[in-house]
């Protein structure tokens, strides 16, 4: 088996696969509510194409695949996709990030198909704020989705929250209390400059330090050792085994331990959320002059190239930083 090691010695084992750039919510920090610049549907990878790429990636040492988007549960054949990935020889550990809206129907079939774990995004416990933040009145669906995930045995159900100044930045302790009561594993994510509307503003960023300070007023937090390549800094809560995570992507970058590569829904490999270059694998897949063996070889070479060209860090804090042309929804969070 070959291994995807970059020039800084980082071994890549985690592939984030975006299944679509479309979403059923319009989170303000992700895309404008009237966003319409969708990828052409003929550019989206078919399920067979996805499976071939993932199989090649597994042969190069990828052992965890996270399905994301856009909203991955909008993909009509999502259960089949999970089943086929879980059925691959040397199947990777399979996780999924979702807004949760379709989970009441899909949590049990996904668990049965072989999904190992799930992350659900929820930024507020207020139905009204949810509407303001997402431009959709779907708070109750997300709550039902979380319950369905628990009932389906997708344990531990992880919840991702982004805090925005003067919108929901007063909710960190309440979100944590709610997560503890419901046995969800909560992680706060710093807002990153990845929105299609260009609204990110460093001066209004709710930082990892501020989140920690807000939680510390109500909970005793003790750092958990052994973070490895995980994006979140984890803390034990009140001396128990329960934990909360803080992902300080902007103010406490963790690029030195990054083990992630991304595949967009239109077949472009990216070495970082913030890459401004991509490596195309879709045209390799659609080249009718190539045999499957040739395609596999070429795709493997393009994974190697992507990793080889990976920069040491995301550069958000460099004066020369340029945000990537794709928004988060079209990269895959
Ligand atoms: C892009 S979404 C895709 C998956 C799915 N639709 C969901 O809601 O989880 C994945 C995660 O990225 C987060 N996200 C989106 N834009 C972000 C930004 N600008 N900064 C930080 N996190 C962001 C979302 O809150 C969500 O937790």
Automatic annotation (TrEMBL):
**Keyword Metal-binding among record annotations:** yes
Q: Name one GO biological process term.
A: Mo-molybdopterin cofactor biosynthetic process
Q: Which UniProt keywords apply?
A: 4Fe-4S, GTP-binding, Iron, Iron-sulfur, Lyase, Metal-binding, Molybdenum cofactor biosynthesis, Nucleotide-binding, S-adenosyl-L-methionine
**Do you know which InterPro entries this protein is assigned to?**
Aldolase_TIM (IPR013785), Elp3/MiaA/NifB-like_rSAM (IPR006638), MoaA (IPR013483), MoaA-like (IPR040064), MoaA_twitch (IPR010505), MoCo_biosynth_MoaA/MoaC (IPR050105), rSAM (IPR007197), rSAM_sf (IPR058240)
Q: Which residues form the Radical SAM core domain?
A: 7-222
A Pfam match is Radical_SAM
Renumbered to this chain, the signal peptide range is none
Q: Which GO terms describe its molecular function?
A: 4 iron, 4 sulfur cluster binding; cyclic pyranopterin monophosphate synthase activity; GTP 3',8'-cyclase activity; GTP binding; metal ion binding
Its protein name is Unannotated protein
Its ancestry begins with: unclassified sequences, metagenomes, ecological metagenomes
């Amino acid at each position: 088996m070959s291994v995807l090691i970059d020039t800084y010695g980082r071994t890549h084992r985690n592939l984030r696969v975006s299944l679509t750039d479309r979403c059923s919510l319009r989170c303000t920090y992700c895309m404008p509510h009237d966003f319409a610049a969708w990828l052409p549907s003929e550019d989206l990878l078919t399920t067979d194409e996805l499976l071939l790429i993932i199989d090649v990636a597994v042969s190069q040492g990828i052992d965890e695949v996270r399905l994301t988007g856009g909203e991955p549960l909008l993909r009509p054949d999502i259960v089949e996709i999970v089943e086929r990935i879980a059925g691959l020889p040397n199947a990777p550990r399979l996780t999924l990030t979702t807004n949760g809206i379709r989970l009441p129907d899909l949590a049990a079939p996904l668990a049965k198909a072989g999904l190992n774990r799930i992350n659900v995004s929820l930024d507020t416990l207020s139905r009204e704020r949810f509407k303001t933040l997402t431009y959709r009145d779907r708070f109750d669906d997300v709550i039902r989705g979380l319950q369905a995930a628990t009932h389906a045995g997708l344990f531990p159900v992880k919840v991702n929250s982004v805090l925005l100044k003067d919108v929901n930045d007063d909710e960190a302790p309440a979100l944590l209390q709610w997560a503890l009561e419901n046995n969800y594993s909560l992680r706060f994510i710093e807002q990153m400059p990845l929105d299609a509307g260009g609204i990110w503003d460093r001066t209004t960023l709710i930082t990892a330090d501020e989140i920690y300070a807000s939680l510390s007023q109500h909970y005793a937090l003790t750092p958990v050792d052994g973070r490895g390549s995980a994006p979140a800094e984890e803390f034990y809560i009140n001396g128990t085994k329960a934990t909360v995570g803080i992902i300080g992507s902007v103010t406490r970058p963790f690029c030195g331990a990054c083990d992630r590569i991304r595949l967009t829904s239109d077949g472009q490999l990216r070495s970082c959320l913030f890459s401004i270059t991509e490596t195309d694998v879709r045209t390799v897949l659609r080249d009718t002059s190539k045999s499957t063996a040739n395609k596999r070889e070429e795709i493997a070479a393009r994974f190697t190239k992507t990793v080889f060209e990976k920069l040491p860090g995301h550069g958000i804090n460099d004066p020369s930083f340029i945000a990537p042309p794709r928004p988060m929804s079209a990269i895959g969070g």
